[in-house]
Design goal:
By secondary structure, this protein is α/β, with parallel strands linked by helices. It has six helices and six strands. The chain folds into two domains: about 70 residues, Methylated DNA-protein cysteine methyltransferase domain (Double Stranded RNA Binding Domain, 2-Layer Sandwich); about 80 residues, Arc Repressor Mutant, subunit A, CATH 1.10.10.10. Helix 4 crosses helix 5.
């Protein structure tokens, strides 16, 4: 690895549970939302980033952790300036994630709106799949992108849609209306 800095990861407590972050010299490489336990989160990170060792985060990562914690406590912070390691992220996914990063805390958009902003109105499903594989949740706020009709849609984190709704409520977003018989 260039620059001599080894890949590392650290666990950190938030209002929604124990999360984890991994980094390289290029920036944050992975964020994990809470799992069944801190040990489960640690095990998942070890599987996702086998080259990473658990260690004290460097200053830029420590600051990002402080800001992610604050966001999950209701602070207004879009984290848009947090450096990410985009290695292994496809061009389409990168474009989706950059658009998601522009969504203000407390706001939501739909998968279809993101697809339209990408210039491909038919790509709502591909947008949903990209966000389902988001390696940087919280920093790339995939929780702010909802299915049509304000339904939460899928959410790959443990706790699924409930975790997504909790994150939105913390941010002060209006909770999506319950689906009606007319939502298709």
């Amino acid at each position: 690895m260039m620059g001599g800095m080894s890949e590392g990861f650290a666990l950190f407590a938030t209002a929604i549970g124990t999360c984890a972050v991994a980094w390289t010299e290029r920036g944050i490489a992975r964020v994990l939302l809470p799992g069944a336990s801190a040990e489960a989160v640690r095990d998942q990170m070890s599987r996702d980033r086998p080259a990473a060792s658990e260690q004290e985060p460097p200053p830029a990562v420590a600051e990002a952790i402080t800001r992610m914690r604050a966001l999950m406590d209701g602070a207004r912070d879009d984290l848009a300036d947090v450096a990410l390691d985009w290695g292994g992220v496809s061009d389409f996914h990168h474009r989706v994630y950059e658009l998601a990063r522009a969504i203000e805390p407390g706001s939501t958009v739909t998968y279809g709106e993101v697809a339209r902003l990408l210039g491909d109105p038919g790509a709502a499903q591909a947008v949903g799949q990209a966000l389902g594989r988001n390696p940087f949740p919280i920093v790339v706020p995939c929780h702010r992108v909802l299915a049509a009709g304000g339904k939460p849609g899928g959410f790959s984190a443990p706790g699924g849609a409930q975790t997504k709704l909790r994150m939105l409520v913390i941010e002060g977003a209006r909770e999506p209306d319950p689906p009606t018989l007319f939502d298709a």
